Amino acid sequence: MTEKVGSDPPRTTTPCRWRVLGHPAGISISEVRCGVEKRGWTAPTVLLRHEVSLGWSGAYRRRINGRTTFSDATSLLLTRPGDELQVSHPLGCDTFTRLEIEPEVLAEHRGGARWLATAGWDGTSDTALDLAHRMLVTEFRRGLDPFEMAERLHGFLGRVLDFVNGRAEPPGADLGRVVNQRPATAAAHRRLADRAREVLMVRDFSLTLDQVAREVGASPHHLSRVFQRVTGSSLTAYRNRLRVRAVLDTLAEADDRPLRAVAAEHGFADQAHLTRVLREHVGHPPARLRRLLTRD
Fold first, then answer.
1. Mean pLDDT (the chain, rounded)
2. What are the residue boundaries of the HTH araC/xylS-type domain, all occurrences included (predicted)?
3. Per the count of CB atoms within 10 A, which of 20, 128, 168, 251 is most buried?
4. Would you place residue 134 in the very low, low, confident or very high pLDDT band (cuts 50, 70, 90)?
């Protein structure tokens, strides 16, 4: 594994620390942690490669080809050479996993043609894909030979492409197309949904719907309706996805914290409630997830 520190010229002028976990022919995987040099927008950067960025923790704002979105631990982004990127970090640092893929590798994958020929994709992953992402990174941290690296990366890339192609367009990707909705209204709704996501990111999980609505200056009914329209997800489902990701981070720390304490820390009623939610979202109980995600 290779660790680098500094600005990453192909992507952004924000200082980043990244570690290359593996790079078999035509594809690579890196862990990236971006710091905060300034809280405004970085200068525009033209991207040089096909890249997949999968959120891990933290949050930031990104502007792709002039369109601004909010990125957090649920985010999944596919970009193409020539895309123009700017980022800002109003909430502090973020971490994500980056795949870089050569065009000839994409051409060999079922589902790669759309990405090669048309446009990227900016949306969110589900919890099953997120767990596969985290398990992949854990396996690379433990150490794999080049043959297995290549097979694992190709398998995961295929899963990402299948996921994205199963969603022809992420919810809210072009709200200007919503029937009878003016562009200005669509933009306002997107900002409201992003603001709600920020509130849920920086506050604890004990917030009620009424409290979130007050924070963003909307009624609970209006916020729920707009959030569903923009993201394709209810606020409750989104909050649970954030909680599951936060629990997975905790379980990967290998500190043997009692599961009842993990449940309380993340706003679950008790350990049984935590177990039910994890089984529902990722198919495993917390004890097994701790074994799967612990590095050693």
1. 84
2. 190-292
3. 251
4. very high
Residue 101 has pLDDT above 50, yes or no: yes
Topology annotation, domain 237-293:
Arc Repressor Mutant, subunit A (1.10.10)
Which residues are CB-contacts of 238 (< 8 A; sequence separation ≥ 6)? 74, 197, 200, 227, 231
Sign of the C-alpha dihedral, residues 12, 14, 15, 21? negative
Q: Is the pLDDT of residue 96 over 90?
A: yes
If residue 79 lies in a helix (H) or strand (E), which one and from where to where?
A: strand 75-79
Strands 84-88, 45-46: pairing kind: antiparallel
* CA 197/CA 227 separation, integer angstroms: 9
CA atoms within 13 A on the CB side of 294: 12
Give the domain ranges of the chain: 2-165, 175-232, 237-293
Q: Is the pLDDT of residue 13 over 50?
A: no
What whole-number distance in Å separates Cα of residue 60 and Cα of residue 66? 16
pLDDT in tens, 210-264: 889 999 999 888 898 899 888 888 888 888 888 899 899 899 886 678 999 999 8
- The H-or-E segment that residue 257 falls in is none
**Count of CB atoms situated within 10 Å of the CB of 80:** 20
